[in-house]
Automatic annotation (TrEMBL):
UniProt-recorded name of the protein: unspecific monooxygenase
Swiss-Prot/TrEMBL GO biological process terms: organic acid metabolic process; xenobiotic metabolic process
Cofactor(s) it depends on: heme
Cell location: Endoplasmic reticulum membrane; Microsome membrane
Signal sequence region: 1-27
GO molecular function annotations of the record: heme binding; iron ion binding; oxidoreductase activity, acting on paired donors, with incorporation or reduction of molecular oxygen, reduced flavin or flavoprotein as one donor, and incorporation of one atom of oxygen
Amino acid sequence: MDLVVVLVISLSCLLLLSLRRQRSGRGKLPPGPMPLPIIGNILQIDPKNISKSLTSLSKIYGPVFTLYLGMKPTVVLHGYEAVKEALIDHGEVFSGRGSFPVPDRVSKGFGVILTNGSRWREMRRFSLMTLRNFGMGKRSIEDRIQEEARCLVEELRKTKSSPCDPTLILGCAPCNVICSIIFHNRFDYKDQHFLNFIRKSIQNLKILSSPWIQVCNNFPVLIDYFPGSHKTFFKNTAELKQYFLEKIKEHQESLDMNNPRDLIDCFLIKMEEEKDNPQTEFTTEALVNLVNDLFGAGTETTSTTLTYGLLHLLKNPEVTEKVQEEIHRVIGRHRSPCMQDKSSMPYTEAVVHEIQRYIDLIPTSVPHAVNCDTKFRNYFIPKGTSIITSLTSVLHDSKEFPNPQKFDPAHFLDKSGKFKKSDYFMPFSTGKRVCAGEGLARMELFLFLTTILQNFHLKSVVDPKDLDITPVARGLISMPPAYQICFIPV
C-alpha cells in the first residue's frame, strides 16, 4: 500500500480517536453532527449564511449543540433560553472571548473587543468610565449628536434630490461623533483623508463578513500561506493604526495633565501615572488598539444600521409616513429632535427597534469562550471552548415576534399603541460582553433617523416592491445591498 495512503488513514484514525476521547472524557460535550477528520463539520455550515445553518442543526440537536469548526469543538447556543442562561445567569463563566484568528492577528491580544482576563476588564472599565465622563448617556453627548445631525442634513441637501448611494454620507455622521470623543474634533464631510478613512473601515467590515474570512477563521493556517482579501484587511488596518499613532503623538506634545480633552488624553494620563508599574496595561500599543476597536465598534455598526434602516423605510413607505406624522406632531419642523421626545414617540421608537431586530446586524455575535471547566445543562464544556451565540435565533423568535420574517413595528407596540419592551431584543448581545457603546448607539440611531425624516421625504428610484433587502453577506455583519435613494426636502 502506498505510504501516503497509510499515513492518511493512520492520521484519520488518530483524529477520530482523539475526538471520541474528547467527547467521553471527564464528561460529555453537547450533542452534534459527527465531524470529519481535520475539517470537522465545516461542510455542514454555509459560510454565506451561518445563522441559517445553525438553525437547521438546532432542529436536529436542540438548543445547545457542538460543532467542530476545523479540529476544535465549538458549542452553539440557539434560542433565547440558552443564550440567557449562559450569558446572563452564568455570565462570568461565559465572559471569555473565543478565538477569532483574522482580527486576532491585527489586535495582537490588545484592545477591548478581543481581549480576555484582567486586560479585558481593565480596558473595558477604562472605556466605560471615559465614555461616561465625556458624555455618553448625558446631555453633552446629545448636543454633539444633534449638531452632527444638522451637519448631516446640510450634506444631504447638497444631493439636490438626486439619486445617491447613502453609505458614505451615513458613515461620516457616527464617525464624527466618535471622533469628538476620541480626538476632540470632527471632520468636514468632504475631507479626503476622512473619507478615505471611512472607505477603509467599510471595506474592512465587508471583508470580515465575507465567506473567505469565515474559512480563514476556521483554518488559520490559510492566513499565512494563501492570498486573499485578508491581506487587504491587514493592510487597511495597518494604515488606520498608523493614523491613530500620529494622532496620539500629537496629543502627547500638547497634553495638559490637569485638563484632558478626550479619551486619548485620559489614556496618556493613565500611562504617566503607571509608568513605574511593570505590569501596567496602559501602553502605547494598547492605546492604538483600543482606539481601533472603538472606531470599528462605534462607527461602522451604527452607520450600517442607518444605511439598512433607510432601505427598509424605502421598502415600507406606509411606515415612513407614520413616523413622519409622529415627528411633525411631537417635534414640529423648526427644532431639533432630542432624546426627551422619545417617550412621546412610541411608533418611532418601535420602528428603530424593529430595524435593529429585523436586520439582525451581528447574527452570531463575536465568539465567546468559557473561562473554566463548566457543567452546563448536564454537559461538560472544557475551559477555553469557543461559544457561538445565535442572536438571530433570539431576534427572530416566532413566539416573541409573530411572523419574524416580516418587517413590522407592531412587534414593539402593545394593543394601545404604546412602546413595548422585549427581553429578546439583543442586537448589542447581552451579559458581561454586551456592547460598551450601546447607550451611544441607541441615541445616535434615534436622533439621526428622526432628524433625517423631519427634513426629507425618502424616494426610491425603483418601485418599493422591487427593492431587494437581502443582505449581500452574513458573516460577522449582515451587509445591506447597494441602493439609490433621493432625499427630497420637506
